[in-house]
Design the sequence.
């Protein structure tokens, strides 16, 4: 079909209807700048979660009572103001949303950069984080697959099966991580996570448009330190379980289910 209209005096091009513009902030998210901001902000949220999660798991080294009480405290977030576990589930949904947006914005940026035939960083910066930058896609896939396995293993109890004890965080972690194949999965996944964190923590300043000479000097040390702390902390758990440093041989604290029964019996006696 011809793209022009023939007339006696002139030829008029047919104008195409303008594309529908999405409302703000969706219109901003359609741009590369918007996607960089979303990826950076969700990345900060996820970095915060990874750090808090690792610190919380350090209660393992205090013993079964402390780590199990920590798990109970998470379920009781919000106190008596909200139903039990509601605040925890809201946090989980928020983190899941951040995770989905992080992946979607990263995919969108990749499509934009491929279409423009441009690299995300300058050549000099790209060399500085060459390996981490080149493997972001693959480390991201490894992290996604590991997250599914981790939930099935220690949250849903599908992987441990009959060995899974609901509410007994200490037992479940020891039972899972003392298995060499499972420990290997955790070790490989956490190495991939550290590599991903290094590049993400390094590049988020650029994504947010922060370009200060003083801050730029500290970007790489900050990223390296953050990734190292997460790596060392998370790798310590499977290594400690495999070597027997963490074990249930001398455990004196009963499982949470028995503790609740004892507390209930004590309460009944007190009111009897």
Sequence:
């Amino acid at each position: 079909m011809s793209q022009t209209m023939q007339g006696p005096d002139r030829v008029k091009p047919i104008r195409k209807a303008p594309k529908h513009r999405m409302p703000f902030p969706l219109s901003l998210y359609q741009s590369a700048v918007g996607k960089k901001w979303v990826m950076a902000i969700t990345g900060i949220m996820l970095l915060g979660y990874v750090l808090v999660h690792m610190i919380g798991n350090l209660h393992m080294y205090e013993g079964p009572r402390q780590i199990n009480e920590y798990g109970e405290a998470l379920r009781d977030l919000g106190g008596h103001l909200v139903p039990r576990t509601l605040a925890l589930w809201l946090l989980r949904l928020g983190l899941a949303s951040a995770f989905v947006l992080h992946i979607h914005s990263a995919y969108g940026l990749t499509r934009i950069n491929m279409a423009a035939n441009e690299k995300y960083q300058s050549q000099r910066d790209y060399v500085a984080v060459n390996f981490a930058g080149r493997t972001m896609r693959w480390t991201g896939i490894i992290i996604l697959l590991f997250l599914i396995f981790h939930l099935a293993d220690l949250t849903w109890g599908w992987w441990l099966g009959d060995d899974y004890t609901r509410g007994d965080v200490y037992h479940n972690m020891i039972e899972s991580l003392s298995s060499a194949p499972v420990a290997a999965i955790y070790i490989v996944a956490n190495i991939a996570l550290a590599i991903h964190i290094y590049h993400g923590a390094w590049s988020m300043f650029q994504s947010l448009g922060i370009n200060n000479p003083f801050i730029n000097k500290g970007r790489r040390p900050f990223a390296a330190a953050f990734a190292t702390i997460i790596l060392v902390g998370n790798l310590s758990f499977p290594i400690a379980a495999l070597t027997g440093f963490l074990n249930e041989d001398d455990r004196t604290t009963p499982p949470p289910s028995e503790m609740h029964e004892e507390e209930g019996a004590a309460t009944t006696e007190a009111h009897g």
